[in-house]
Amino acid sequence: MQIVAIIGSYRKGRSIDTLVDRAVAGVRSAQPEAEVERINLIEKRIEYCKNCMVCRNDDPAKPVADCVIDDDMREIYPLLERADGYIVATPVNMGSSTAVLKTFLERVCWVLAKPGRRPLPGCPVPRSARKKRAVAIVSSGLILPVLRRFCDNATPLIKDVCRCSLGARMVGSLYAGGVEKRGVEYYAGRAFRLGKRLVVE
Q1: Burial 162-183 (b: 16+ CB within 10 A, else e)
Q2: Is 15 helix (H, G, I), strand (E, B) or coil?
Q3: What's the rounded Cα separation, in Å, for the pair 152 and 101?
Q4: Strand order in the sheet with 132-139
Q5: What pLDDT, on the 0 to 100 scale, is given for residue 184?
Q6: What pLDDT is stored for residue 95 in this prediction?
Q7: CA distance 30 to 178
Q8: Beta-strand relationship, 35-40 and 168-176
Q9: How far apart are the C-alpha atoms of 5 and 79, rounded to whole Å?
C-alpha cells in the first residue's frame, strides 16, 4: 500500500508535522509494509495555476493530463496517481487552508480529473477508476473544536478535491483546535487512530 502525506504547513517541526508523524505511525501499526511518501509543499517549487485549461481539455483516457507548467508538480503527479491513500494536512489560516496547499489543490484538480456529467456537466471526476482513501488533519492555534464550523473551510475543500480529482473517499478528519493552550499531544492519539483508519477501512 502506498500512502502520500501532503503537508501544507509553513513551519516544520510544529503541530502539523507532529500530527502527521502520529498518523503515519498509525498507518504503519496496521500496515507495516505500507510505503509512505511525505511531501512538504513549502520545500517545493509550485507555481500558480494559469487557468489555461490545457489539462482539462487533454485526452480523458490519459491517467495524468498534461500541464504546461514546468515545476516540481511534474514529480508529484505520478506519486499522487499511484497512491492508494492520502493524508492531507494544513493549519487553518484565516479560516481556510494555507495558500501553499490551496495552490497545490488547484494544480491537482484537472491534471488528475476530467470533465464529468455529475452533479453538473463539466464538473471534475477522477481520471482513475481506482478506489482510494483519504484523511484530513487540520490545526488551529486558537479556535477550539466546539467552534470548528465557524472557521474550518479547509476540511471541506480537501474532501472535495480528494473525491473529485483523486478518487479518494474521506474516511475521517481531525481538527486539532486550540493547540496553543492544549498542546499538540492532546490530539496525538486521535491522529494515530486516524492513520490506522486510513488503511483498515
Answers
A1: bbbbbbbebbbbbbbbbbeeee
A2: helix
A3: 14
A4: 35-40, 2-7, 85-91, 132-139, 168-176
A5: 95
A6: 86
A7: 29
A8: unpaired
A9: 10
Amino acid (one-letter) located at 193: R
Q: Which cell is 150 given?
A: 465557524
Domain containing 70: what range?
2-200
Domain count, the chain: 1
Q: Where are the beta strands (DSSP E) in 8-123?
A: 35-40, 85-91, 113-115
Whole-angstrom distance, CA of residue 25 vs CA of residue 154:
24
The β-bridge relationship of strands 2-7 and 85-91 is parallel
With vertex at residue 179, the alpha carbon angle to CA 176 and CA 183, rounded to the nearest 5 degrees, is: 110
What CATH number should be reported for the domain holding residue 121? 3.40.50.360
pTM (two decimals): 0.94
Count of CB atoms within 10 A of residue 49's CB? 20
Instruction: State residue 94's pLDDT score.
Output: 87
Find, among 39, 151, 55, 19, the residue nearest to 95 by Cα: 151
Q: How far apart, in whole angstroms, are the C-alpha atoms of residue 55 and residue 96?
A: 26
Q: What pLDDT is attached to residue 141?
A: 92
* Residues of the chain predicted below pLDDT 70: 201
The per-residue pLDDT for range 127-182, each reduced to its tens digit, is 999 999 999 999 999 999 999 888 899 999 999 999 999 999 999 999 999 999 99
User: Locate cell 480528494: which residue?
Assistant: 162
